[in-house]
Amino acid sequence: MPQNNDPLIIAGVEYASRLLTGTGKYKDLEETRLATEAAGAEIVTVAIRRSNIGQDPSQPNLLDVLPPEKYTILPNTAGCYTAEDAVRTCRLARELLDGHKLVKLEVLGDQQTLYPDVTATLEAAETLVKDGFDVMVYTSDDPILARRLEEIGCCAVMPLAAPIGSGLGVQNPYNILTIVENAKVPILVDAGVGTASDAAFAMELGIDGVLMNTAIASAKNPVLMASAMKKAVEAGREAFKAGRIPRKRYASASSPIDGTFF
């Protein structure tokens, strides 16, 4: 259970950390472990098609360094380009993880941009929800689509900030704001974050969390970047809750002259 009074709640479970991290692209499992610890992540995504979590007993097992007793494993459908493949992958993950229901759904539509195929995403989401999965869904930043995925029954909606791995940061903040303002489920930015300021800015929009992989794993010093992202997400959340001052065209004195002694 979280030790703070501002938990992130996903599928009825409370988490203290609002930073979710991926497990791909690191140089080895030890770096994966160290970066995950530095990020303070409690939910870690695992690409079922690319990571060994028991499919091959002869190879190193990711769960040896990120044990399910310590982390919530979030199987994802990275690399799937059809609804059928995504559903099949989630069902495989459920078997491998002894009935685990929480999954991250992504159905890609283009190999170059890795943009989501929203039609196939809707189809797969409907099937998975009916099959008893708790679905966190990667999607575009379309507010109407986000609402539809919520209506289907997804437990969290995860609009992209920018294309996967681009590092461009939040490209359409007003779209993200619209999604947040109308949502009744957690909204997490997924994909496109490049550095700590991107993560802080995203959190200041009022989102519930950030999921990232490339921004940490592909940094020159992944472990140090993981630490920076942890602080950025925390600072962004605090700034959102504190309420920023309005933007103004002209200066306003920090110490007004009214009521001064001379």
Brief rundown of the structure:
Helix content is about 35%, strand content about 15%. It has eight helices and ten strands.
> How can the largest sheet be summarized?
3 strands, parallel
Strand order of the largest sheet: 3-10-9
Helix run count: 8
Mean pLDDT across every amino acid position: 92
Overview of the molecule:
The chain is of the alpha/beta class and 262 residues long. Helices cover 35% and strands 15% of the residues. The chain has eight helices and ten strands. It has helices at residues 29-39, 83-96, 118-130, 143-152, 173-182, 196-204, 214-217, 222-242, and strands at residues 8-10, 13-15, 19-21, 43-47, 72-76, 102-105, 134-139, 156-159, 188-190, 209-212. Strands 3-10-9 form a three-stranded parallel sheet. Strands 6-7-8 form a three-stranded parallel sheet. A two-stranded antiparallel sheet has the order 1-2. Strand 6 (102-105), helix 3 (118-130) and strand 7 form a beta-alpha-beta unit. Helix 2 packs parallel to helix 3, helix 4 packs parallel to helix 5 (173-182) and helix 6 packs parallel to helix 8 (222-242). The model has no long low-confidence stretch (mean pLDDT 92).
